[in-house]
Amino acid sequence: MADGPTSSDKIITQPDPATKTSWTIMLYIAADGLLANFAVESLKQLSRSASSAPGKDDQASVVVAAQFSIDAPGGQSIRRYIFNESTGGNLGNGIQDPLNARATCPSSRH
After folding, report:
1. DSSP letter (8 states) at residue 20
2. Buried b vs exposed e over 66-88: b needs ≥16 C-beta within 10 Å?
3. What number of other Cβ atoms are within 10 A of residue 47's Cβ?
4. How many Å apart are CA 77 and CA 73, to the nearest integer?
5. Comparing 72 with 46, which gets the higher pLDDT?
6. Is 78 among the domain residues?
7. CA 32, CA 43: separation in Å to the nearest integer?
8. Which residues, in sequence order, are CB contacts of 48 under 8 Å at separation 6+?
């Protein structure tokens, strides 16, 4: 039996537990009628997930950026949200300035 690793031994490296990874999840939700209720519930779940306190073994910091268009006729103001650890799971805490689709849509310029 030889001392030390042999050619058949595999060296497995583990990530440094002190290293924290940052993730940004971006999504766009468009819904109308009955589906709008499900979209709002999805936003609430995303907000709670992104703002929950990390566990001792968590190695990721998550930020969720969402645009939410409800009953989307062209040229409306589109709600935008950013959820992270500081928003506390409340949709209202994640509200950002809305996107004015009328101002950014080339077909609406005359």
Report:
1. -
2. bbbbbeeeeeeebbbbbbbeebe
3. 24
4. 10
5. 46
6. yes
7. 15
8. 89
Residue with tokens 């310029």: 109
Distance, in Å, from the CA atom of 47 to the CA atom of 103, rounded to the nearest integer, reads 28
d(CA 20, CA 63): 13
In a domain, residue 13? The reply is no
What is the domain range of residue 102?
23-52+60-108
The answer as to whether 5 is a domain residue is: no
Task: Specify the number of domains making up the chain.
Answer: 1
| Confidence (pLDDT) at 83 | 92
Q: Residue 7: its pLDDT value, please?
A: 61
Strands (E), 42-110: 60-70, 77-83, 95-100
- The two beta strands, 21-31 and 60-70, are parallel
The proportion of the chain whose per-residue pLDDT surpasses 70, expressed as a percent, equals 71
Q: In which band, very low, low, confident or very high, does the pLDDT at 64 lie, cut at 50, 70 and 90?
A: very high
What pTM was estimated for this model as a whole?
0.65
